[in-house]
């Protein structure tokens, strides 16, 4: 392995923290209070206001947020939850944590990699308790149609908003259309702090359940006992340790101030890619130019027309051009753990995308020259 193979010249993701971000975390370390406390509460208020929702409950990951959202929807043993298979495994895994069965539905097609409402409708059974939609790559999914479908069948809509901290449908933020939205602040996400997540909801009972279960079902937390607000606690349900902590909340608050500007830059990079790749005969670029302004532009997916060459193209991009790529996503229903337990439904559009997709670099540390190199590398290899 030579150096370019170990560290790509143009990585898929990169994260640049400002001195202010680092100072904000150092201040917390100096304060001596590390676990969930006032900064976590301040971040929750900031994020709830940004989304236009009543409640935001910060947790340790989006996986935890999905688990709590499914529990809040009443998902339990014997139930089914309809999820896409073209997603990160967590969307489906959190269903299994509840003792329920993930039922995979197909995506729209190569030009839209989010759930097809018609496919979801075909999967609804009397055991369906919820549908979870993923806003793929930051582009709003067909959330209004899905909401109407869910309402008609009396099932909950959950949104996996890991890719989309700022994306809109008719001026309303995604993550606010269902019973609950689950956000991620993992290292490579749009708003990152390392590990973190959040449950957003307008529903008082969902918020109360998430607040309680993230911390062992306890009626009060360490901070409220520290401040003398409470002196003891009861455990009112089986909970988990899904807490966020203060250094991460401080980092999120600091980075949040740049979110608008960073997403504007992501959209600019996305538009530049779209313009440069539009005429490429070997590639399909999903979504439309007019979708970009409503998207968080988390990643840049492209599909190779001759998908038999996809893996060879990825290897050449890396070894010859120093360009790191990824696959969004290997299909969850084809993973060993899911195949063995839940069988393999036929999802033609998902399977096609899982074989043809390449995710190319898109991040804040990327300049126009790097983007042009990625475009040239695609022209050379595809
Ligand atoms: C990253 C991701 C998750 C999991 O987020 P964590 O914060 O790492 O738990 C869930 N769903 C999707 C679609 C993701 O991309």
From TrEMBL:
Cofactor(s) this protein requires: pyridoxal 5'-phosphate
One GO MF term: pyridoxal phosphate binding
Presence of keyword Membrane: no
Record key words, sorted: Pyridoxal phosphate
Gene Ontology BP term (one): polysaccharide biosynthetic process
Residues with the N6-(pyridoxal phosphate)lysine modification: 189
InterPro entries: DegT/StrS_aminotransferase (IPR000653), PyrdxlP-dep_Trfase (IPR015424), PyrdxlP-dep_Trfase_major (IPR015421), PyrdxlP-dep_Trfase_small (IPR015422)
CDD domains: AHBA_syn (cd00616)
A Pfam family of this chain: DegT_DnrJ_EryC1
Keyword presence, Iron: no
Family (UniProt): Belongs to the DegT/DnrJ/EryC1 family.
Protein name per Swiss-Prot or TrEMBL: dTDP-4-amino-4,6-dideoxygalactose transaminase
